[in-house]
Amino acid sequence: MQDIFYIRRSIRRFKERPVDKEILEEILDRARLYPSAANLQPVRFIVTLSDERISRALPYLRWAAYVKPRRDPIPGKGPKALVLVCHDRRVSDTPYVPYDVSAACQTLLLAAVEKGLGGCWLGAIDRDGLGSIFDISSHWYLHCVLALGYPDECPVIEQVKDGDIRYFLDQDDVLHVPKRSLSEVVLWVQ
Ligand SMILES: Cc1cc2nc3c(=O)[nH]c(=O)nc-3n(C[C@H](O)[C@H](O)[C@H](O)COP(=O)(O)O)c2cc1C
After folding, report:
1. How is the chain classified by DSSP, letter by letter?
2. Does residue 145 sit in the same domain as residue 167?
3. Cys staple from 71: which of 12, 50, 88, 91, with CB 3.0 to 4.6 Å?
């Protein structure tokens, strides 16, 4: 079953192929349709396709802790677009904001897959460092970064074994991502 939900895995190796601005705009146009508490829509996206700005941002992003440093960016395989996901405090600052942000992130990542791209949601970020590169309004709070590009890896879904949820790399540098089974995560009730 290869629909976008199965295809979407966190991608940390990208092809050199650039991402067209028009395609990224189509992805962002879908991301803005995320479900939002009270429909306040506080999420804001700061977007760059600039290789120069992306390379300046890379030191402030942390990749794949379980396999470190084997999924740190290497020359020629880095992301081709970065989306900084923020929220505007003036629009909403309720406890629901992180849900809105998460909904927007997943919507964006799935829209990217639909367009043949892949991406990684990066929560382990240096906000001050990124703030020195991107002009972020003082009214905006930076939550996370989505790194995007054409995938140059094809991670494989695994069953969680013995409760071990850590993703791992095999000897061919293929990433394996354990997922909990349907029976573990679903409780049917009558
Ligand atoms: C809130 C959040 C923060 C994450 N932060 C990072 C991160 O800082 N660096 C990273 O390499 N991956 C990060 N990830 C990606 C997860 O490692 C990844 O989603 C998980 O291993 C499952 O793999 P999958 O996305 O392929 O299903 C993050 C994911 C989420 C949802």
Report:
1. --SHHHH--B---B-SPPPPHHHHHHHHHHHTT---GGG---EEEEEE--HHHHHHHGGGB---GGGTTTTS--TTSS-SEEEEEEEETTT--STTHHHHHHHHHHHHHHHHHHTT-EEEEE--B-HHHHHHHS---TTEEEEEEEEEE-BS---EEEE-BTTB---EE-TT--EEEEE--HHHH-----
2. no
3. 12
